Amino acid sequence: MLKVEGLTKLYSGIPAVQDVSFEIPRGEILGYLGPNGSGKSTTVKILTGLIQPTRGHVFLDGVDVRHDLTAYKQRLGYVPEEPHLYTYLSGREYLQLIGRLRRLSQPRLDRKIDDLLDLFDLTPARHMGLASYSKGMRQKVLLCAALLHNPEILILDEPFSGLDVTAASVLKGLLKTLAAEGKILFYSSHVLEVVERVCDRVMILQSSRVVAYDSVKRLREMMTLPDLEQIFAQLVHQEDATERVKNILRVVAS
Ligand code: ADP
Ligand code: MG
Predict the structure, then answer these.
(1) Ligand positioned closest to the Cα atom of 38
(2) Cα–Cα distance between 45 and 61 in angstroms, integer?
(3) Residue nearest atom 18 of ligand 1, based on CA coordinates
(4) Which of 40, 114, 146, 207 is buried deepest, with most CB atoms within 10 A?
(5) Whose CA is closest to atom 10 on ligand 1?
């Protein structure tokens, strides 16, 4: 079980995340939702050990991950939001690099890389520089990289950005299957449709604070609203987009 207690992160005294606590048992996917700037990526960076929280702790099976961060990171797969990759490497070279860092044996690595590239329709592009990949293709490479060592915990930050319909549907199936195999999944997104379909529980953030934490089913019952989009809109007090559109057009035309 991955457990987070009282996570708070301040940047120059300004909170990016405030008092976030949750648990993800093995076999479950937690959907982490919120509008832009609500603190999702900051939480992800704390969960992956990239940054330290100002307050709070992350525990894996009861042990504070700070106790042995290297060992924790070895059990983790991470798909970051920004597909910053070594653009001078080809997709295959990048995966080779990651696989070696993850200490996979060469024959196993070669086989896995070729299979994964094939399954993500990247074989024709495997020798091309990552600079020439589209955002979706880079996202797929990052996903392959995160899966190479078959991690127990998978942390994904907006993994569907740039993916086409086929790739998105493959990823949805993949996430569900990985959870069914007993893995721990943390899935951060502002796209509600996928969260609703794949996640067991959702946490909704607004301006760095938790505004809801429950199963999708319970949230629906509680709010008597038919889908997550409407629940989200109510909790997050989203303004009417039409008004914003009008104002933008006014400025554009001025
Ligand atoms: P989300 O991923 O939900 O869009 P983030 O976690 O990236 O949100 O950001 C939450 C808030 O923290 C935002 O107001 C953002 O400007 C701020 N923030 C994020 N990273 C930094 C940083 N390195 N330095 C200062 N402020 C930051
Ligand atoms: Mg983000």
Answers:
(1) 1
(2) 20
(3) 16
(4) 40
(5) 39
Q: Which atom of ligand 1 is nearest to the CA of 43?
A: 6
DSSP string, the chain: -EEEEEEEEEETTEEEEEEEEEEE-TT-EEEEE--TTSSHHHHHHHHTTSS--SEEEEEETTEEGGGGHHHHHHTEEEE-SS----TTSBHHHHHHHHHHHTT--HHHHHHHHHHHHHHTT-GGGTTSBGGGS-HHHHHHHHHHHHHTT--SEEEEESTTTT--HHHHHHHHHHHHHHHHTT-EEEEEES-HHHHHHH-SEEEEEETTEEEEEEEHHHHHHHHT-SSHHHHHHHHHTPPPHHHHHHHHHHHHH-
d(CA 201, CA 207): 20
Cα–Cα nearest to 183, from 60, 67, 99: 60
Q: Does the pLDDT value for residue 157 go beyond 70?
A: yes
What is the arithmetic mean of pLDDT over 53-80? 95
Q: Categorize the per-residue pLDDT at 222 as very low, low, confident or very high, splitting at 50, 70 and 90.
A: low
pTM summary value = 0.88
